[in-house]
Write a structure and sequence with these properties.
about 260 residues, PMP22/EMP/MP20/Claudin, five-stranded antiparallel beta sheet, transmembrane, membrane, elongated, Butyryl-CoA Dehydrogenase, subunit A, domain 3, 7 helices, single chain
């Protein structure tokens, strides 16, 4: 829904087109942002020797991964060795469907996930992952908390902007489109901050826990959706603000001309 024209005036087709495009961009960015939050492919690990998952050592790694007492180092090691993926809310590894020693080791694999609890999201990170006596790593702690909070702030701002747009339509006014544009701009900043926090957090983690030689890590498609969402939000914000300000100027000039 986009803000309607001022009562008693005709909105130029340029403004209507700009508002329609802005609304479409806003909708797409909201869908992308929601999809990225709800999926588990922000970062992916690929090991060159997944057959180790069925060995005794491999089995103990992924059994510890699902333990409630698993710390950051424990579940990160499992992600390294078991083709893991990490999202904002869950972490997943690839394990054999049948864990018996006599089962064939190849092909029959499945992905199992475990969610980060709310306390996990606000838990302190340590200078040496897994060592509670090493002190708190403030950088990683606050980066982790921000990457959890910022996407919800971003979606909230866009939803609030949509609500303002609906109210503007009811009032038949174009001016609130400026507020909608500002809210989308702030949402874009939050999304951009989320992407930056996530990248910085991953880089700092890998400095503490370097990737093994036979493991490759890469950002996944969920992360890419968030990256695409940010510029869409900025473009929608620019169109909303441009349409409102330009239409306001033309209305002022038209009013002055009629008075003259």
């Amino acid at each position: 829904v986009f803000p309607c024209g001022r009562k008693g005036t005709m909105m130029d087709n340029r403004f209507a087109t700009a508002l329609v495009i802005a609304c479409v961009l806003s909708l797409i960015s909201t869908i992308y942002m929601a999809a990225s939050i709800g999926t588990d492919f922000w970062y992916e690990y690929h090991t060159l020797s997944p057959a180790e998952n069925v060995s005794e050592a491999g089995r103990s790694i992924w059994e510890e991964f699902f333990s409630k007492e698993a710390d950051e180092k424990t579940y990160t090691d499992a992600l390294f060795r078991c083709n893991g993926t990490v999202g904002l809310w869950r972490r997943c590894i690839t394990v054999p469907k049948n864990s018996h020693w006599y089962s064939p080791p190849e092909n029959d694999m499945t992905t199992n996930c475990i969610s980060f609890s709310l306390s996990d999201q606000f838990m302190e990170k340590y200078i040496e992952p897994g060592n509670h006596n090493s002190g708190t790593d403030l950088n990683r702690t606050y980066l982790w908390r921000l990457q959890f909070l910022l996407p919800f702030v971003s979606i909230g701002l866009m939803c609030f902007g949509a609500l303002i747009g609906l109210c503007a339509c009811a009032c038949r006014s174009l001016y609130p489109a400026i507020a909608t544009g500002v809210l989308h701009f702030l949402a874009g900043l939050c999304t951009l901050g989320l992407v930056g926090c996530y990248v910085a957090g991953i880089e700092l983690l890998h400095k503490k826990l370097p990737l093994p030689d036979d493991v490759r890590g890469e950002f996944g498609w969920s992360f890419c959706l968030a990256c695409v969402s940010a510029p869409l939000q900025f473009m929608a914000a620019a169109l909303f603000i441009w349409a409102a300000r330009t239409n306001r100027k033309e209305f002022t000039l038209l009013k002055a001309y009629r008075v003259a």
